[in-house]
């Protein structure tokens, strides 16, 4: 089963979208395994985005992600990584379709309010990076038989 690391970025927290963003994943039918409000360090931000280290916007990206609290989430479900990317929409919010999180709620790539893992491998890597083992919960949602035949 796939796992995706989803994070409300500091602008999403400051603009009051935490509840709305959690709600969209809950309503879709994915399972929440971890959730916390967190102030990210520069070191963690650099590790999370290490694949982008050579990009000209990298220092700005690290400043942005550490500029205030983020909400860290681990979501589980068959196909959750690809589905979350669709729910989130394109990296540039002006290109993101209406109905997606970025398409509805944001206007600029440098303030695109949410992160979602881009592959199942990165989902596992990022959840291990942002959560301690004791912060992840195994549980059986009562709605499971009503989601999958
Ligand atoms: P994430 O889910 O946050 O990883 O976004 P993404 O997968 O849609 O995009 P990508 O991994 O390529 O870039 C990571 C993040 O870096 C983006 O979400 C933006 O916040 C930021 N970013 C990417 N490109 C630019 C850029 O050209 N300018 C600025 N300022 N930020 C950028
Ligand atoms: Mg990415």
UniProtKB/TrEMBL annotation:
Question: Has the keyword ATP-binding been applied to this entry?
Answer: yes
Reaction(s) the record says it catalyses: a 2'-deoxyribonucleoside 5'-diphosphate + ATP = a 2'-deoxyribonucleoside 5'-triphosphate + ADP; a ribonucleoside 5'-diphosphate + ATP = a ribonucleoside 5'-triphosphate + ADP
What keyword terms does UniProt attach to this protein?
ATP-binding, Kinase, Nucleotide-binding, Transferase
Write down the EC number.
Answer: 2.7.4.6
Q: Which GO terms describe its biological process?
A: CTP biosynthetic process; GTP biosynthetic process; response to hydrogen peroxide; UTP biosynthetic process
Q: Does the keyword Protease apply?
A: no
- Tell me the enzyme class: transferase
Which residues participate directly in catalysis? 115 (pros-phosphohistidine intermediate)
The UniProt annotation places ATP binding at 9, 57, 85, 91, 102, 112
GO MF annotation terms: ATP binding; nucleoside diphosphate kinase activity
Domain Nucleoside diphosphate kinase-like positions: 1-138
Q: Which cofactor does it need?
A: Mg(2+)
The record's similarity note reads: Belongs to the NDK family.
Q: What is this protein called?
A: Nucleoside diphosphate kinase
């Amino acid at each position: 089963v796939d796992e995706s690391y989803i994070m409300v970025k500091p602008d999403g927290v400051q603009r009051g979208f935490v509840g709305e963003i959690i709600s969209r994943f809950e309503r879709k039918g994915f399972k929440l395994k971890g959730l916390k409000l967190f102030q990210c360090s520069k070191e963690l931000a650099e590790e999370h985005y290490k694949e982008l280290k050579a990009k000209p916007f990298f220092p700005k990206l690290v400043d942005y992600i550490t500029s205030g609290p983020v909400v860290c989430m681990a979501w589980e479900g068959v196909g959750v990584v690809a589905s979350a990317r669709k729910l989130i929409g394109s990296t540039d919010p002006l290109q993101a379709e209406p109905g997606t999180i970025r398409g509805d709620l944001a206007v600029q790539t440098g303030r695109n309010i949410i992160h979602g893992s881009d592959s199942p491998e990165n989902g596992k890597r990022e959840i291990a990076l942002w959560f301690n083992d004791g912060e992840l919960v195994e549980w059986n949602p009562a709605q499971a038989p009503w989601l999958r035949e």
